[in-house]
Each structure stands twice: as C-alpha cells, then as structure tokens.
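Retro notes, item 3 of 5
We never archived the inputs for the NDP complex last cycle. Fixing that now. Sequence and ligand:
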Amino acid sequence: MAIIIDGKAIASEIKEEIKKEVLLIEKQYGRKPTLAVILVGNNPASEVYVRMKKKTSEEAGINSMQILLDENTTQQELLTLINQLNADNSVNGILVQLPLPSHINENDIITAIDPVKDVDGFHPVNMGKLVIGQQDCFIPCTPYGCQELIIRTMPDIKGKHLVVVGRSNIVGKPLANLMIQKNNMANCIVTVCHTATKDIGYYTTQADILVVAVGRANMITKDMVKKGAVVIDVGINRIQDPANPDKTKLVGDVKFDEVSEVAYAITPVPGGVGPMTIAMLLKNTVKAFKLQNMK
Ligand code: NDP
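Structure as it came back at the time:
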C-alpha cells in the first residue's frame, strides 16, 4: 500500500517555520508582513477559503486584512481599491479571491495588482519570470505546494518523468513550467495532458510523478498509474456519498483506494494539496515583505 502524503502535517511544519521567520522580521523591521485578501460576493466555497486564509495567516503571525465586498461591486470600484492597496506601504501582499462575479474581468483585475505584491503569482510578470526561471517572482500557491510535496516524498527528482493532467493557468501550466526548470527542486521531463489528449492512460502510465488537476471525480484509475509512482491529486470534487446517499463528500480526481494499491505515495483529498496551497501563500507573503524591504 502507498505511503499517504500528509499535506496537513507538512503545511503545519511550514507554518511553524514561517512563524519563526515572522518573529525575526518583526524584530528587525518593527512590523509584521501584511496580507490583504479581497472577496467579492458570497460564493460559499470562496468564503470558506478566505476564512481559512485569514485564520492560517494569523496563526503564523502575519497580519491579515479581510476586505469583503458586495456582489454588485463594479470593476472600477475594485480597481480603485487595488490601486489604494498597491500604494499602501503597510500592505505587502494582495490576493483577490477567484472566481469573481461575471461582470468583472478577472484578467484586468489580476493585471492591476502590483507584481511585487501579487502573492497568488497570477500576474503576467510573475508568470513570465517563472517561465524563464527568475527567482524574484511569486510561484502560484497550488503548484508551489505540489512541488514541495513531491520533493519531500522523492528527494532526487532529476530526470524523472512528471505527467500533469490539466493545463489551467492556476495549476497545470505553472506546475509544468516550474518542474522543467534546471534546479534541484525540478529538472523533470514534463508531459502535459488535457482534453485534446486522446489516450490519457498512455501518458499517465509512463509517469514517475503524476499530478492530476482536472476537476473530474475519480477520473484516474489504477490501470492508468505506473507501479511505484508518486501521485499528487489536486482535484476537489463534491459528490454524493456512496455510503450515505443523503450526504455529500469530497473526493479528488484520483480513485484513491485502488490507486493506493500501485502507487509508491499518494496525497489524500482532503488533507493533501489543499492545506499546502495556504502554507505557500504565507511563504509568498513573507517573500513579498522581503522583496519590498530589501531594496
Ligand atoms: P480548470 O477547470 O481551470 O482546468 C481543468 C483542466 O483539466 C483543463 O486544462 C482541462 O483541459 C482539463 N480537463 C478537464 N477534463 C478533462 C478530461 N476529461 N481529460 C483531460 N483533461 C481534462 O481547473 P483548475 O485547474 O482550476 O482546477 C482543477 C481541480 O483542482 C479542480 O477540482 C479544483 O477544485 C482543484 N483545485 C484545488 C486546489 C487546491 O488548493 N487543492 C487549488 C486549485 C484548484 P482543457 O484545457 O483542454 O479544457
């Protein structure tokens, strides 16, 4: 049976490391890093994420500003707020929780955030720096968390074949770009699968490291996984609980029970990638503080 990669425990370790770093920052600069999180509207899942981000930031000693805006907030009002936060030297990180209401253009909002405060790493400047391997960028939190889980599970990943299923701008594409970089935390051979991939299993069965970020419950089955692979399941899907049809439960994109029989190691859902995403947001916020104060 596979080793269960405990994202919750690893995220907790990272949070403790950050807590120590924040104390040092406070000693040296007389203030703590500050993260502003903006939520527009009442998407229930987003509300939970924003609450968790606030709670975890505060546990790590980071100042957390939560800005809750009405569903009818205009794009101009949101842009004005972002400009104010960009200009405010006491704010180090700005995160706009996605998705935004449909009358707001997400790209316009992401692009308005000062790249040096873009702790989500979605600004084209940060994406570009990630692609060319420049260190002074913010790596999007979910792929960054996946990388951390991979290297803690398989320390020597040089030359390993990593297959990622999914090519979204927030997970698949940044992860692929991160893992082909020529450094000790990457240096993989990367294949990316998506909806135009005819036989996904043909590729996934060749993966030493398989990362799945699709949003389709239990899509990856045992026959699609190579024996001994490290499997990282990013997917979060709410389905009817087969054991209790009145209730729902969260599952990943990987059929956990059967894939555990062949994989070397696997992340659970929940408790795998999810907690890591928030831990890496804290890491990015501390990095933002340093980049802004070490000029
Ligand atoms: P998107 O919907 O933006 O992207 C999904 C990707 O999967 C697309 O590239 C799509 O291909 C591909 N895809 C969809 N269906 C198939 C299929 N049948 N075969 C092959 N490829 C397919 O999703 P996200 O990347 O935003 O999220 C993916 C999952 O990860 C979701 O469940 C989401 O909830 C979860 N997630 C979890 C996070 C965490 O912190 N744990 C953070 C972010 C996301 P194409 O491009 O061709 O359309």
